[in-house]
Amino acid sequence: MIEIQDLHVTVGEKEILKGIDLSIRPGEVHAIMGPNGSGKTTLAQVLAGRIAYVVTKGRVTYDGKDLLAMRPEDRAREGVFLAFQYPVEIPGVSNAYFLKAALNAIRKYHGQEEIDAIDFVSLVEEKAKLLALDESFMKRGLNEGFSGGEKKKNEVFQMAVLEPRFCVLDETDSGLDIDALRLVAKGINAMRGPTRSMLVVTHYQRLLEYVAPDVVHVLVDGRIVKSGDADLARNLEKHGYGWILEEAPRPEAARA
Amino acid sequence: MAVPVDAKDAYLSEYAAFAKDLDPREPAWLRTARDAAIARFKETGFPPPKHEEWKYTNLGPLLRVPFRTSGAEALDGVLAEHLEPLGFGVLKTSLLTFVNGRFAPRLSYVRYLPRRVRIMSLAEAIEDDPGALEPHLGRYSPPDGNPFVALNAAFMTDGAFIEVPSRTEVEEPIHLLFIHSRTEAPHVSHPRNLIVLGEASRASVIETYAGGASEEYLTNAVTEVSVGAAASLDHYKMQREGDRGYHMGTMAVRQARDSQAACHSFSFGGLLVRNVVHTLFQGEGGDLRLNGLSMTSGAQQADNYTRIDHATPSCTSIELYKGILNDRSRGVFNGNIFVRKEAQKTNARQTNKNLLLSQEAWVDSTPGLEILADDVKCNHASTIGQLDENAVFYLRTRGIDEEAAKNLLTYAFASDVVNQVRHAPIRIKLDQLVLARLPRGASLTERVAG
Question: Which of A162, A172, B5, B280 is the most buried (most CB within 10 A)?
Fold first, then answer.
């Protein structure tokens, strides 16, 4: 479903991603772990189309299409979704209006009619229940005054309503208490299916206890230095990132 | 080509003719006030470009147009259906319409009113009951500070007079509609409104200023308001002048003890616009909300000057003015809160926020506090910024295109001023006006806020 080849990304003057290769098939959940500053968020943002992040080399193919040539809104309409690490607050635009506008923009792109008002309400109610969000939530300004946990829940809620096919979750577990973490994980798991792929970016293994990944990659200094199964995540939790750095082959060798 | 006449001399010589034609039965005090005002104007004239209060406002283009007070006759008939877009949908209001500054009874109606409430044209009040005007007219907005106020005081002939007796509530808003309709030569109207609310009374007044897009004209309006003890006023100014219209508007408010006033100024139209609001607390416990929103584009300039005079203790004023400027338009915010020595326990907050949508747009923001009392809670804040790129990106990652995302954020910026409006139909109308003025076309079509 998504094929990343030798991706190099520069932010400002600095090269952050130094040749990423990653392939995710339909239905798979991949986790990217790595210490702070390794380039996890840059990878997530560049997949969503952040303009300030300049791709200097490499390519990303999504469903056979050149993802990097697409505008952020078209990526979203084609089914790419990024759950932000730091969702933006937009007072004055209600959650309900925002979500309806997003849903209709996606539907329009696919030649579908705008969603009926009643259908929209029942869709939203169904998905809100999943994340235990109360009614007043839809009337509030988008993320306005939300706690960290509420914002993360809102990201997963949006994902549930928009039903993307490729989900990138950037540190969705950070700042969550255990109850919120369980709800968010439940929301994510409810979306797993044979046609949907996920890339879960996280610093800790915590979320992966609830959302079991098929493949775990370790990102260090802009390169994937190790890939493995869920056990790799547990090892990282136990031993930290230090041993990987020592054991990791030289980047040139890794790509050969 | 005609030789340009000095604007000041033109107004002075027109006043001489105007005064000759005045109704000889007009009360002496009013005639004296007119003469004093024109004498004052003769002394000061129009401000030179470097004048402290006018340095950000280039009056040049306005002074080059030979506006005349005479020749108010509209060349085209104004029909009731022309006024419909200037109304507020389902909102039931009494309506006083003025065409080129003159009351148009044919286009006006007064709905049911509680006993002894008076809504009438100022011309009628001058003729029938000048005694009711004398204690107020010209006293809240004296002609000494501002040449346009002085000209209004000299030339005023019509406008609205609203009087609400004590302990009376006027439920439905009163809409005062001032429209410019095509005239033979460039016309200036000098509407003067007087609103007097008795003790513990309540009323809502809307002033709308509108005109066609093709003509140069000047509206030089003054509104004087007295809010009695424990009385409550909601006031809305909808400035929707035509694209080539000029608007000089002053509003002066006096608040007695425990009174409440919420004054909203929405400024959309006009080529050069100046909205001035001066308020004065004259008793303890007064409460004032001052809200403003300006949206400009093209070569428009909209200036907002506000002055809140805390002369008495324990009053609260909360001011929020926002500007949205596109293209090469300009704007001024100049806010002054004056807390006198006696005005202990004052609570004053002033906020001015500006959103620049283009590189060429320009705003001068000068917030100000002058505090002579020592036991007060006052603060002010002023910001000038652009759309948040992070927010634009966030919306785009949800499938909303870049134009729509920018529109949505611009709308959101305006919404907290719009949401201060108590009457839902007025809020809905304002939403439409804001949406229609978004720079990238009306890609948003419905109410966005919760």
Answer: A172
Of B283, B306, B337, the residue at which a domain comes to its end is: B283
Radius of gyration of the CA atoms of chain A, in A: 18
- Chain A hits for B395, CB-CB cut-off 8 Å, are 90, 98, 102
Tell me, yes or no, whether B53 and B202 share the same domain: yes
Is B344 among the domain residues? no
Its domain, for residue B412, covers 390-450
Domains in chain A with CATH codes: 2-255 (3.40.50.300)
CA distance B95 to chain A (A): 32
Q: What's the confidence (pLDDT) of residue B76?
A: 86
The CB-based long-range contact list for B2-6 (8 Å cut-off, 24+ gap) reads: B4/B64, B4/B66, B5/B66
Q: Do B449 and A140 make contact, defined as CB atoms within 8 angstroms?
A: no
- pTM exceeds 0.95 for this model: no
Q: Which residues of A touch B421 (CB under 8 A)?
A: none
Category of A34 on φ-ψ map: left (φ > 0), alpha (ψ -120 to 50) or beta? left
The residues on B that touch A, with CB distances below 8 Å, are 388, 390-391, 393-402, 404-405, 408-409, 411-416, 419, 446-450
The verdict on residue B124 lying in a domain is yes
Are B276 and B409 found together in one domain?
no
A193-196, long-range: CB < 8 A, 24+ apart: A193/A27, A194/A26, A194/A27, A195/A26, A195/A27, A195/A165, A196/A26, A196/A27, A196/A164, A196/A165, A196/A166, A196/A167
Residue type, B56: Y
Q: Which of B389, B396, B407, B438 to mutate: most A Cβ within 10 Å?
A: B396
Q: Which residue has the higher pLDDT, A137 or A21?
A: A21
Enter the tokens of residue B397: 């990652």
The answer on B36 and B151 residing in a single domain is yes
Q: Which of B245, B263, B283 is the last residue of a domain?
A: B283
Domain shared by B397 and B273, yes or no: no
Contact B448 A76 (CB under 8 A): no
Determine which of A99, A142, A167, A170 to mutate to test the interface with B (most B C-beta atoms within 10 Å): A142
Residues B410 and B275 in one domain: no
ipTM for the assembly: 0.95
In the predicted model, is pLDDT for residue B79 greater than 70? yes
- Report how many domains make up chain B: 2
**Predicted local confidence at residue B2, as pLDDT:** 41
Taking residue A147's Cβ as centre, other Cβ atoms within 10 Å add up to 12
